[in-house]
Amino acid sequence: MSLFIQSPLEKLKLNQKNEFADLHIRNIYMIAENYFPTTCRRLKVNEIIIIEITPIQNGVNSIENKNEDLVSIITKYQIETIQNTNPFSMALNGVIDAAVNGGINMYVNAFLQDKYLKDYPSDENLVLKMKQLLVNQLYILNVGLSLHNRLCPDNFRPFHDKMKIQFDDMKEKLVSYLKDMKPDEIFK
Questions:
Q1: Percent of the chain with pLDDT over 70
Q2: What angle do CA 145, 149, 154 make, to 5 degrees?
Q3: Residues with Cβ < 8 Å from 140, sequence gap 6 or more?
Q4: Above 60 in pLDDT, residue 188?
Q5: Are residue 74 and residue 32 in the same domain, yes or no?
Q6: Is beta strand 45-53 parallel, antiparallel or unpaired with respect to 3-9?
Q7: Measured distance CA(45)–CA(58) in Å, rounded
Q8: Per residue in 45-99, pLDDT tens?
Q9: Using one digit for the tens of pLDDT, what is the confidence trace for 117-141?
């Protein structure tokens, strides 16, 4: 692959209140004659591949990427003795108290309601995958909060306690959508 472009795809807006429900993405891959970087001003494009990603697939990808980021930072703080816990705190808080973009609730409202599967029965596997990723995320956040509890300095204790309360609220709201699901083996 020589060039990759990702852009939102304008489609009919069905849900004005939840942008995640209508967020189609177009990935454009351009295969050129030569590789970048190059000194040539122009390159012949041999092939263009366009892949459209549906809103639910985009949501699954987003949650999957966030889970990987969380596992990475948790593992880093488990292994290394790092004095500054601010990046760790912000990573956890960014998911638990997602003030930007509405967080997990936006995915729940867009894709985990019964109406969604009635309208899009072919997305059943993606809905199940999203649910599994959310179960995994709850598990990851629980491990992260436990580690944060041990690492956070005393002056961060009120912040940690606030995150713990918000996490418990988040978990309580998600439980009804994630019945009988268990997390994958994440931390080996």
A1: 89
A2: 140
A3: 67, 70, 71, 74, 183, 186
A4: no
A5: no
A6: unpaired
A7: 27
A8: 889 999 899 999 999 999 999 999 999 999 999 998 888 889 999 999 999 998 6
A9: 999 999 999 999 999 999 999 999 9
**Locate tokens 């439980």: which residue?**
175
| Same domain for 96 and 17 | no
Between 160 and 28, the higher pLDDT residue: 160
Residue 175 dihedral angles phi and psi, to the nearest 5°: -55, -40
* Overall domain count for the chain: 2
The pTM of this model reads 0.83
Compute φ and ψ for 54, nearest 5 degrees: -75, 160
Q: Single out the residue of 44, 34, 20, 29 nearest to residue 130, CA to CA.
A: 20
For the chain, what's the residue count? 188
User: Are 37 and 106 found together in one domain?
Assistant: no
- What is the end-to-end Cα distance of the chain in Å, rounded? 34
Residue 180 lies in a domain: no
pLDDT at 110 over 80: yes
Measured distance CA(131)–CA(96) in Å, rounded: 17
Alpha helices in the chain (DSSP H): 55-79, 86-96, 104-111, 114-119, 124-151, 157-175
For residue 83, the enclosing domain spans: 55-175
